[in-house]
Amino acid sequence: MSLRTISRFQLSRIPVTFDSKVFTPMSSILASLRTLSEEDQELLYQAPAIVTVLVAGADQHIDHREQALAQKLVNYRTFTADSVLHDYYEEANSRFEGSLQELMAAWSPETGQRAMSQLLEEVGDVLLQLPEEHAGALKESLRSFAKKVAEVDGGFLHMGGISAAERNVIDLRELDVE
Fold first, then answer.
1. 21 bridge partner residues
2. What is the 3-state secondary structure (H, E, C) of the chain?
3. Which residue from 20, 21, 107 is spatially nearest to 61, judged by alpha carbons?
4. pTM of the model
5. Terminal Cα distance for the chain, rounded
6. Which one has a higher pLDDT value, 90 or 173?
7. Are 138 and 102 in contact (CB under 8 A)?
8. What span, in angstroms and rounded, lies between the C-alpha atoms of 151 and 140?
9. Percentage of the chain surpassing pLDDT 90?
10. Given a cut of 90, is residue 79 above it in pLDDT?
């Protein structure tokens, strides 16, 4: 195969050796995640489900349309997110449904929002352990994810608007722990 026929995706997967260490370009977020404890890795992979429950539950009711869209979004992000996050979303996608069901089972209108906010603060704490480029890309992606989930059920006749309750949570301030 000539170099001209190798796609950008294929090039991004070719291991490169520097000083006896192997690096895989554009998938370095996985290398960064591997430096975390298994518990912290799991928490980061649950982040899209946490955001889904936080935003969808902001109006005290989690609609099945919000859940369905969130599932599709996580899948789409495996190829539409910032390229540095593709591998992250591949793994998050494989765990999403189970994570969402687990979080929904624990959610209640009385305490659910507080619990999800606390989990998101923990995500923010873990993000501090990642290189800024990875943490920043993931924060930005989760915020746009939150906005898309909010748009499903809010507004006039559920047509792309965002309800006031959801508007209060979509900025995901909890991620900005310092």
1. 18
2. CCHHHCCHHHHHCCCEEECCEEECCCCHHHHHHHCCCHHHHHHHHHHHHHHHHHHHHHHCCCCHHHHHHHHHHHHHHHHHCCHHHHHHHHHHHHHHHHHHHHHHHHCCCCCHHHHHHHHHHHHHHHHCCCCHHHHHHHHHHHHHHHHHHHHHHECHHHCCECCHHHHCCCCCHHHHCC
3. 107
4. 0.81
5. 49
6. 90
7. no
8. 17
9. 57
10. yes
Nearest to 45 by CA among 69, 21, 77: 77
Structure tokens at 142: 């989760």
Contacts of 168 (CB under 8 A, 6+ apart): 58
CA atoms of 148 and 173, how far apart (whole Å): 17
Measured CA distances, 172 to 44, 92, 146, 168 (Å):
14, 18, 8, 9
**Cβ within 8 Å of residue 69, ≥6 positions away:** 148, 149, 152
Q: Please state the length of the chain.
A: 178
Nearest alpha carbon to residue 142 among 120, 164, 114: 120
